[in-house]
């Protein structure tokens, strides 16, 4: 992990098109601003982890084929 020290109002540039700026620093909170192309997805880590977990759960969900067939046949 690259670690940089920045002060309020200072920025970091990533690959010529993403700018991350420190907007405000309080006791335990840092407010960060992002300038990036619209196709770059920016998520809080906890949201990213939740999406990843949901996707994993959906992918490994067991499907009982027979129960599904029975359910479809009962609707006919």
From TrEMBL:
Organism taxonomic ancestry: Bacteria, Bacillati, Bacillota, Bacilli, Bacillales
Name used for this protein in its record: Translational regulator CsrA
Function: A translational regulator that binds mRNA to regulate translation initiation and/or mRNA stability. Usually binds in the 5'-UTR at or near the Shine-Dalgarno sequence preventing ribosome-binding, thus repressing translation. Its main target seems to be the major flagellin gene, while its function is anatagonized by FliW.
InterPro entries recorded: CsrA, CsrA_sf
Gene3D superfamilies: Translational regulator CsrA
Family named by the database record: Belongs to the CsrA/RsmA family.
Compartment annotation: Cytoplasm
Superkingdom per UniProt: Bacteria
One of the GO biological process terms: bacterial-type flagellum organization
Major location (coarse): cytoplasm
Organism from which the protein derives: Paenibacillus albus
A GO-annotated cellular component: cytosol
MF GO annotations: mRNA 5'-UTR binding
NCBIfam families membership: csrA, PRK01712.1
Quaternary structure annotation from Swiss-Prot or TrEMBL: Homodimer; the beta-strands of each monomer intercalate to form a hydrophobic core, while the alpha-helices form wings that extend away from the core.
A matching Pfam family: CsrA
Repressor listed as a keyword: yes
Gene (name only): csrA
Keywords of this entry: Bacterial flagellum biogenesis, Cytoplasm, Repressor, RNA-binding, Translation regulation
